[in-house]
Write a structure and sequence with these properties.
The protein is mainly alpha-helical and 90 residues long. The protein has five helices and two strands; from the N terminus they run αβααααβ. The longest helix is centred in the N-terminal third of the chain and has 20 residues.
Length: 90
């Protein structure tokens, strides 16, 4: 029962995170220059994920390339969106 509940919670969390991105097929783009985002207090993980954003690569591909747990990648991407460092281009 606990395993089923954990899986349900993970599914709901994933759905909520994906809805904030607007879908995995979207392609984020940078809103700021390197000089501007260097002043943000980004962790090394956030900086790494940010380095993968080129305006052409989809969220799904960024998550694959990042090679970390999907939920960690999603949370990082949402933080970058919330900070207005990135936005959705399509």
């Amino acid at each position: 029962a606990a395993k089923a509940l954990a899986e349900l919670n993970e599914s709901k969390l994933r759905s909520g995170l994906l809805s904030k991105l607007g879908g995995l097929e979207r392609r984020p783009r940078l809103n700021v220059s390197q000089e501007e985002y260097v002043w943000q207090s980004l962790s090394h993980v956030e900086g790494f994920v940010l380095s993968l954003i080129d305006g052409q690569t989809s969220y799904a591909d960024i998550i694959d390339i990042a090679a970390m747990p999907e939920s960690d990648s999603l949370v990082t991407l949402i933080k970058l969106l919330d900070l207005n460092i990135i936005s959705n281009s399509d």
